[in-house]
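Q: My labmate handed me this sequence with no annotations at all. I'd like to see what the chain might look like in three dimensions before we decide whether it's worth expressing. Could you predict it?
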Amino acid sequence: MILEMKVPSPGESITEVEIATWLVEDGDYVEKDQPIAEVDSDKATLELPAEESGTITLQAEEGDAVEVGAVVCLIDTAAEKPEGSPTTPTSTSVKEAPKVSPVKEETATTYASGTASPAAKKILAEKDIDASTIKGTGKAGRITKEDAVKAVPSMGTMPEDGTRGTTRKKMSMLRRKVAERLVAVKSETAMLTTFNEVNMQPIFDLRAQYKEDFKAKHGVGLGFMSFFTLAVVRALKMYPDVNSMIDGDFKIEHDFQDISIAVSGPKGLMVPVIRNAEKLSFRGVESEVKRLAIRARDGQITIDEMTGGTFTITNGGVFGSMLSTPIINPPQSGILGMHNIVNRPMAVNGEVVIQPIMYVALSYDHRIIDGRESVGFLVAVKEALENPVELLMDNNPTKALEM
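A: Here is what I predict for the chain of 403 residues:
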């Protein structure tokens, strides 16, 4: 029986995906649920598992954009599993096999020899390279897309101690969508940024006193994100315009705080959402941050987990950033940027002392948030971070960290 594998819907409003990488080759035997491809949507990169076991025939090439519901491969479920083959063949073993296969040598001079695939032909044309100058590594000497990408135009004598190679690689659909959205933010919003500084010493003192007991009790560390998230929740309640967004001629106000947090994943920056952060304790925030970060790192984050959010927190400090102007995550109206913590001289009670200081930045859409709200919001965040015992812990840090 020939099974047609169709592109499943990755999420609401997504109608097209792109074949990012085939994890198997044409003619391979695949097992049911074995990952056979990575597909990019404009929101995430997802794995495509085999629906049944059998021999696979690819119907699309890497880089092809295909509609949701389109057939991308065929699986012959009646085919028998080759003897001695591993349960889940790796792409490395598949690619190495043709190198020692006598079949390739016998068919090296067929009509396919030196012929470029459609994708390879396009790349070679863009590089102005004659296909006859390329030695194909595909079946029967066919020139593959990878051969075309690696091909470098002849430039005469090159210095012996240097190279001048370039690589042309198409951006993933996700990256192209991010680029499109970032440009749109600049052109479609009245984005401004206001700055302030935070003395992190009170939080340092609390973490030094309670972090060991907190981790032993809850199984997660007491980091900075819980303080910042709860400080943002408090400030959003005080300045609800910062928690609003524009929809055409309407202003949408939220009575909840869904906080998006920017985390680094294998495919780049992702922004999962902490739902109803206003209902979470320090332990709740830290546990949710850890869960989402692990899922993003392991490539398991779903589109639903990255959809929505009423306000975003991003931490460039983990990469060493001293100061930045973060870009709004549409359709939200505000984003808070955290930065690195540096010991700086500061006036405290009339004396100059060294304190751990973080610069913070709030980028906001001036169409819906006025200067009073934006500055007041950032000052409220600063006040909560510099006086967390009173403003975030109700003067009882032991109870606040036990919840």
